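User: I'm new to structure prediction. If I give you an amino acid sequence, what do you actually give back? Let's try with this one:
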Amino acid sequence: MNCRHCNAPLELVLIDLGTQPPSNAYLGAEALRMPERWYPLRVLVCEQCWLVQTEDFAQPQELFSPDYAYFSGYSSSWLAHCARFVGEAVQRFGLGPDSHVVEVAANDGYLLQFVQARGIPCLGIEPTASTAAAARAKGIAIVQDFFGVRLAQLLASEGRQADLMIANNVLAHVPDINDFVAGFTILLKPQGVATFEFPHLLRLLAEVQFDTIYHEHFSYLSLTAVEHIFTRAGLTIFDVEALPTHGGSLRIYAQRADTGKQPISDRVDALLEEERAAGLTQRATYSGFQERAERIKDDFLEFLLTAKREGKRVAAYGAAAKGNTLLNFAGVKPDLLPFVVDKNPAKQGKYLPGSRIPIVSEEKLKETQPDYIVILPWNLREEIMAQLAYVQAWGGQFVIAVPALEVSKGKMT
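Assistant: Good question. You get back a string of structure tokens that encode the predicted 3D arrangement of the chain. For your 413 residues, that looks like this:
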């Protein structure tokens, strides 16, 4: 396989997670009688542009099917994050009723609802039918399609260019990253601005966040790699912020290289230097990640086996894609983890891919009063522990597996 950005041959392996089904391919009851598609899940590192990427096997149409069940609007902390961003962007870039905002991967309208509430015209682009329908139910205009040069040219020809384009947690999800980014150059107005948020590779490596690796993530991104990609597409990065979301993310600000007038912040060079100092452009930095991930997996599996032997009841919270990577890598089945609770009604009544663990509502926790609740979306641990604080009444304890096994009755560090 060659690099999806620069076409250099790929030889350096970051991690091999065996074979896994697509992490968001939740199963209905009827699907339990049928086989699942499993694909190899290997991550390779390009030693030319330093883009970290999954090996190609699954097709995006299968990964992002019409009944795709990831809805962004069920996390209160994420909604608060997006509301803050909209307020800051409106003020920083002087957006108003004469502006046009376009969000790529608008999902269920979780962010554009805050733009719409300010009376700013907006458009969402979202390929999955289930989430697009949820956004339309909020009154948000949606183009249901995959974004790239083709769609950008069509929208630009219709006079729908943007003052602000937003792409949160989608840059890692696109198989043709060059085509995707080039679309922003086309759809931006001459002085338009684009913002992107994505999990930071530096944090993934430092904190062994291997469970954020799954087929729907084609790339694992550093500012170093993204700068290469954006420069080729005719975009200039003029600012960057480190964020706590999703276990540590970056928000980058970009403009057209030919017409953009935003001053370039010193933070861009500072973060590039931080990545160089951390070794992200050195082969040795990527060695040993497999062994560290296997230790985490082994510790988690040992915890579940010990709990079973001792007659302890274990449940999980959050039918998250990252949880599916962990569970399938560890080979966990319902005998060790009988059910997982999720707030999203679209997931309740279904089963996790691979492990086939049933997804239930929160009422199941209150009925069964498990001794341990494994928080699979560990990036939301504070929010979930506050929501489930009542489990302490029966002595329930919370468990985090990544980046290290942690068991606690109260707040975790």
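You can read the tokens as a compact description of the fold. Here is one thing that stands out. The CA atoms of residues 47 and 396 lie 47 Å apart.
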